[in-house]
Amino acid sequence: MTKEGRPNNPLYSAFAYDDAFRTMETECDDILIPFYIFNYKMELDDIDADADRIAALADLYKGIINRLDAEQESGRLSSKSHGVIIRLTHKVIYKIMEKYNNAREKVGDVMGGEVLDLPEIRAYNEGKAEGMAKGKAEGMAKGKAEGQAERDALEAENERLKQEIERLRAASV
C-alpha cells in the first residue's frame, strides 16, 4: 500500500477511500464503500501471507467504521444506512476473501461484529438468547407435562395389572 492507503497495483481503480465519504451527500454514493475491497483484490495473495499487511487492512476497515460512525453521529448517515453499509461490506469482504483465510478472519471480524458491536447485532443476539430461554422453558414445561401424563398412564396400567393379578390369584385358589 502507498502512504495514501492506496494499493500498489497498476490496475487500481480511481475509487479512493476519501472519495467514498466525500460523496455521502448524495443518496446512493455511500453504497460504494462495501466495494472498496476490490481495490485490493490483486494483492490479496501477498496481503494474506503478511501479518503486518493484514493488520494494516484491518486498521483501514476500522477507520471506515469510525468514519461511518462519525457520519451517523453528524446526521449525514441514517442508522439504517450505517447498518446496511456495514453488513454489505462484511458480505463483500467474505466473498472476495473466500480463499484468503488469514485476511478474511481479521478483516471480516472487524466488519462482522466480533470487534464491531452494532445495535442490530446486539438486538439479534439478545432476541436469540431470549427466544432460546423461552423455548427451553416451554420445552421443559411440555416435557414435564408429558412425563407426568406418562407416569399417570403407567400408574394406571400398574394398578390394572395388580388388580388382574389379584383376580387371577383369587380364581386359582
Structural description of this entry:
This protein has 173 residues and is an all-alpha fold. The protein has two domains: 17-116, no CATH class; 118-173. The chain has helices spanning 17-22, 44-48, 51-74, 79-96, 101-112, 119-172. Helix 3 runs parallel beside helix 5 and helix 4 (79-96) packs antiparallel against helix 5 (101-112). The radius of gyration is 30 Å and the shape is elongated. The protein starts with 16 loop residues before the first helix and ends with a helix.
Short précis:
The chain is mostly helical and 173 residues long. The chain is built from six helices and no strands.
Radius of gyration: 30 Å
- Fraction of helical residues: 55-70%
Beta strands, count: 0
The ordered string of helix (H) and strand (E) elements is HHHHHH
Structural class: mainly alpha
Kindly report the average pLDDT value: 77
For the record, the count of structural domains works out to 2
| Tally of contiguous helical segments | 6
Chain oligomer state: single chain
Strand content: under 5%
State the shape: elongated
- What is the terminal-to-terminal distance? 102 Å
Unreliable residue stretches: 9-14, 23-28
User: Tell me about the biggest sheet?
Assistant: none
